[in-house]
Amino acid sequence: MTRTPTPGRRERKKAATRQALSAAALRLFLERGFDRVTVAEIADAADTAVSTLFAHFPGGKEALVLGHGDERAAALTSAVRDRPEGTPVLRALRDFLATRGPFRPEPDPQHRRVTALVVGTPALRAYARALWTGSEAALTRVIAEETGRDADDLSLRLLARYVLEIPDLAGTEPDPRAALDTAFTHLQRGWPDL
């Protein structure tokens, strides 16, 4: 049995600082709005320096809410690679997206407030879209690996891009989950073998 090593003191302290910054930012954004909060106010609320904030979140204020693209790319590729046997790639991607952001079934009130903040704030919405589309190469590569196709196949790159645009397009519809299903219905027509 392999044990996961326990993070050292330094790593625990970094994680605690990141959590304090993120929590302070989210609290302030929800209280006053994203555009009415400065990074200096966030750093002060978390009892850190502005330079510390940027050391942990080089993406700035947007990253405090949405993280960075590496986490998203890893989750997407895992959704495809680790899907149950016999599950089509498109079904695995649809099921994955159904657990994210505005598509989550019956989100708690805090999650609804954060989703509304992201959708209603142009800078956050643009950053979220950039995080999703920034995963295009990784998603294309894993779909190619899982289907035995060439990663340079334009069809797979198109599919990956379309899938990654769904959160921005369908997530702002009055019924995001229905819009998610509609989007995947159309994708399945274009890629019936996936």
UniProtKB/TrEMBL annotation:
- Cross-referenced Pfam families: TetR_C_14 (PF17754), TetR_N (PF00440)
DNA-binding segment(s): 38-57
Keywords from the UniProt entry: DNA-binding, Transcription, Transcription regulation
Q: Tell me, what is one Gene Ontology molecular-function annotation carried by this entry?
A: transcription cis-regulatory region binding
Give the InterPro entries listed for this entry: Homeodomain-like_sf, HTH-type_TetR-like_transc_reg, HTH_TetR, MftR_C
- Judging by the UniProt lineage, the source's domain of life is Bacteria
**UniProt entry tagged with the keyword Amino-acid biosynthesis:** no
Question: Any idea where the HTH tetR-type domain is?
Answer: 15-75
Q: Where are the transmembrane segments?
A: none
Q: Does the keyword Transcription regulation apply?
A: yes
Q: Where is the signal peptide?
A: none
Q: Which PANTHER family match?
A: HTH-TYPE TRANSCRIPTIONAL REGULATOR BETI, HTH-TYPE TRANSCRIPTIONAL REGULATOR RUTR
Put simply, this protein is called AcrR family transcriptional regulator
The lineage, from the top, is: Bacteria, Bacillati, Actinomycetota, Actinomycetes, Pseudonocardiales
